[in-house]
Every structure is written in C-alpha cells, then in structure tokens.
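**Backbone shape codes:**
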Amino acid sequence: MNNIGYVDVSHSTSMKDLDITPRMATVLKVFLEEPDQPRFGFELMKLTEMAGGSLYPMLARLEGAGWLSRGREDIDPHAAGRPARTNYTITGIAVTAARIQLAALSEQFRPPLPGRMRPEGGPA
C-alpha cells in the first residue's frame, strides 16, 4: 500500500472478550499478518472473500469490543477526487488476545489422530 496518512477516529481504550467464530478468525488473521497496517473494507472483502453484508457488521462488532480502531485517510478529497476512506487497524491489546484466541480455535478444530480414544471411552 502507499504511504497515505491516517487519522484515528476511534475512542475505545478497553477491550471486551469475544467468542471468535471461524469467519471472524479469517478477518483477524488478515490484521495479524501486519498489525500496524490499516485495512480498508474493500481490501478485507477481497482478502477474506466475504460479502460486505457479513464483513461490515463484524468489523463494527470488533470495533465496539475494542479489538479494532477505526480511522480515515488523511487526504484532500478534492485533490484525490474521492472522499476519504474508512480504515481499520487491530489495537495493540487485541493483537495478543487474537493470537491466543486463534490458537485455541485452531486446537478446538484440529482433527483427532487416527485410532486415539477419547477419555470417555468413545472413538476419537
């Protein structure tokens, strides 16, 4: 991406726990690839292959919980010929929480090894 300036318009300083769904994990993974990189909605739609109707409510939920901060491009709309775009950045405190949650989610959905028995006595 280019070196456009950004203005933070979010005011969240705390973070709420969230139950991370597999679809939300897909979005968080993009943010964790480059935590300092602001991401635009259209870019996230392409990278996650999610429709805006699914993605934007999820971004709003993540922002409301303090996991993402929202900003706007610091551009002159007249010079750029378009309005400033909204972007999202994962918050510093959410980086660690997201990594922990994604690791737990990965462990939860890891297939069992063949031939292993569950503690209850059922097949793995």
